[in-house]
Amino acid sequence: MEKVKISTIKSNPNNPRLIKSQKFEKLVNSIKQFPEMLKLRPIVVNNDMVVLGGNMRLKACKEAGLKEVPIIKASELTAEQEKEFIVKDNVGFGEWDWDIIANEWDSELLNEWAMDVWTQSTELNELMESDLDLTEHFDPIGESEGMQRVVFIFDGSEEAESYLISKKIEYKKRNMAWQVNMSSKEIL
User: Fold this and answer.
1) Is a pLDDT exceeding 70 seen at residue 135?
2) Which of 55, 63, 125, 172 is most enclosed, with most CB atoms within 10 A?
3) Which pLDDT belongs to residue 107?
4) What pTM did the predictor assign?
């Protein structure tokens, strides 16, 4: 590992990974608050100083105003291995244990660290605190007893609609909530 001027590193024009603006802002803040992490997870470059792993970190380091960053040169990789590394470096093989996350970690802190976790949105707070009786606004779901109201949390309308369409779930948008008609077996 070595520390180099950030201006000597080139972003990879073939990087297949993207980061949305909100997550990018969180990454920039994370680097500002905890720059020591870069030493533990340096940017990986090839011999031409083109990024193989850490394109978004490089972009965030520039935005954070860093002048130097730690790198590791992957000088022994073939061109094919470099391409493979670019993808494999961004693949998440594991899964989160959501019980541990929910019980041992603060969701607001995890959200600040750019992890996708549940946080209660202002819109949901308003909906829950309102005197609005949702049953007045929705069509009956069925005559079956024991039906439960299920709340899905999405980042926005586009994500909600995309999810519902991808799962071929019929829905109606009612003010701040979405009504779906499905059995509990279909939800699972």
Assistant:
1) no
2) 55
3) 79
4) 0.59
